[in-house]
């Protein structure tokens, strides 16, 4: 292939090639994951109570993530004077968990198998949903990983116990998590307005170790005040519902709730968590791209994930150095 100028190889612009997450290598064989980070899609939205469509979230977030694929040199941030996600941080995309239409339990089992494979390989699992019920199999997969604390960023508490026999819908995941003996607590940020959880659910959540803060309460506390509420030394699993953000910047979701977080409010909390804690897993859920023709919601999701991963591995290298 003819080259122009002194540069060689491919420019590999965002709109060229296959849309793996961050344009990182695809690993189809889950027994051969060799990476620091493994990304999996969980395109399941049968737990949704209102607008469906989050099954298309993984594809949309992957495509959006190509915008932030700067090759092997990493991404330099002049504010922090740091280069995030250099080539030394190995990220792979392992594709999607298989989804069996209308079968929640089979679909969740396939998601759980993927997370277990990532953990067995020693990779940080990152799961892109899908509705928030996909957190249930993600947390199940941590049953042999030691104690964890969950940081939830969300508009809704998701602490419904059972409703008309449903235990594994997208209103249930934090209740199911709190029942696990290895989940030592939950910090829920952004909970606001009318929620899917009734008053008794809030009472049960607090009794089971859930620290609940609205957007306004988080703003009053500030980033440092919020970080101080996380247990010192806790190993953190982060679950991000995109409706935790204000629909003015993230309208592409099934259950939008006005008054949500803006970008830097969440980013600064995640950066603080990465500096102070070991992050053991991440899921980002409820991106339903058909409700946002601009594509801004999935761009936000990809940007948050890539920045958070950058913070995590920069903090690791600083601690190890």
UniProtKB/TrEMBL annotation:
PROSITE patterns from the UniProt entry: ARGINASE_1, ARGINASE_2
SUPFAM superfamilies: Arginase/deacetylase
Keywords annotated in UniProt: Hydrolase, Manganese, Metal-binding
Sample GO molecular function, one term: agmatinase activity
Keyword presence, NAD: no
Transmembrane parts of this sequence: none
Binding positions for Mn(2+) per the UniProt entry: 132, 154, 156, 158, 241, 243
Cofactor note: Binds 2 manganese ions per subunit.
Cofactor list: Mn(2+)
Family listed: Belongs to the arginase family. Agmatinase subfamily.
NCBIfam families in the record: agmatinase
Protein name from the UniProt record: Agmatinase
Protein source organism: Rhodobacter maris
């Amino acid at each position: 292939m003819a080259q122009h100028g002194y540069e060689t190889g491919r420019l590999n612009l965002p709109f060229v090639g296959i849309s793996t997450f961050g344009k990182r290598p695809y690993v189809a064989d889950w027994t051969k994951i060799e990476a620091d980070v493994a990304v999996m899609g969980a395109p399941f939205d049968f737990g949704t109570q209102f607008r469906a469509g989050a099954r298309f979230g993984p594809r949309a977030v992957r495509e959006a993530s190509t915008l932030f694929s700067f090759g092997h040199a990493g991404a330099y941030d002049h504010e922090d004077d740091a280069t995030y996600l250099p080539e030394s941080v190995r990220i792979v995309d392992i594709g999607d968990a298989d989804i069996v239409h209308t079968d929640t339990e089979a679909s969740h089992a396939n998601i759980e198998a993927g997370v277990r494979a990532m953990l067995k390989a020693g990779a940080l699992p990152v799961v892109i949903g899908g509705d928030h019920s996909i957190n249930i199999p993600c947390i199940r997969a941590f049953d042999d990983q030691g104690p964890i604390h969950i940081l939830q960023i969300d508009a809704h508490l998701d602490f419904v116990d059972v409703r008309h026999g449903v235990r594994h819908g997208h209103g249930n995941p934090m209740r199911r998590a709190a029942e696990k003996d290895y989940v030592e607590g939950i910090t829920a940020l952004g909970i606001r307005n009318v929620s899917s959880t009734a008053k008794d659910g809030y009472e049960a959540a607090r009794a089971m170790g859930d620290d609940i803060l609205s957007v306004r309460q988080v703003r009053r506390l500030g980033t440092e005040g919020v970080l101080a509420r996380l247990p010192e030394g806790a190993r953190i699993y982060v679950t991000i519902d995109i409706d935790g953000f204000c629909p003015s910047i993230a309208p592409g979701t099934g259950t939008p709730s006005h008054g949500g977080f803006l970008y830097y409010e969440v980013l600064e909390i995640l950066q603080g968590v990465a500096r102070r804690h070991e992050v053991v897993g991440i899921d980002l859920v409820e991106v339903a791209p058909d409700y946002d023709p601009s594509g801004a919601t999935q761009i936000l999701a990809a940007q948050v994930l890539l920045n958070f991963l950058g913070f995590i591995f920069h903090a690791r290298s600083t601690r190890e150095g």
